[in-house]
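Sample pair:
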Amino acid sequence: MKRFCLTLSLRPDPELIAEYIEHHRIGRPEIHKSIRDAGVLDMEIFHLEGSLFMIMDTTNDFTFERKAEMDRLNPAVQAWERLMSSYQNVSPESDPSTRWRQMERIFKLTHTTDQTSLVDRREF
C-alpha cells in the first residue's frame, strides 16, 4: 500500500467554502467509484480555514498519471472537476490532476519494539 498526502487551497469566501464542504458531505457515487477504480483504497480530506489536506491510501500499482487518464475519459469526473474548480483557489483552466499538490513527509513518529524510544524513521 502507498500513502499520499496532498494539499489544496480554497477561494477565501466562507460561503463558497461551506458549499464545497457540503458537496463532499453529500458525495456522488459515480465519483467515489472512479476514485476506487483508480486504485484508491481510502481517502480523507481535512479542512482548516481555506486549506485542505488529503490523506490517500492506494494500491501499490497506483499512479497519478493513470488516475489522470481515467479521469479525462470519465464525463462525470470532468463535470465534478469543473464544479470543484469554482471553489478551489486555482485557475478553472488548470489541469485537474495537478490542482492537489503532493506534500513531502518530513517526520514520522514510530514506536519501537523495545519500548525505549519514539524516533523519527525517515529514510533518506
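The mean pLDDT is 89.
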